[in-house]
Amino acid sequence: MSGLTYLIPIALLLGLAGLAAFFWAMRSGQFEDMDGAAARILIEDEDL
């Protein structure tokens, strides 16, 4: 039972850290152009 007193706050802190990282990624524009990144894989470079 005493292990839960350590694990529950750690799990909550890790969850909040993940949520903060997600909101930071949203604010910095990481998810703006999802179709462009997918199409960029298919474009062949001709200057090789």
UniProtKB/TrEMBL annotation:
| UniProt keyword terms in alphabetical order | Membrane, Transmembrane, Transmembrane helix
Residue ranges spanning the membrane: these are: 6-25
Q: Which InterPro entries match?
A: Cyt_oxidase_maturation_cbb3
Q: Does the keyword Membrane apply?
A: yes
Protein origin, superkingdom? Bacteria
Q: Which NCBIfam families match?
A: ccoS
- Protein name per its UniProtKB record: Cbb3-type cytochrome oxidase assembly protein CcoS
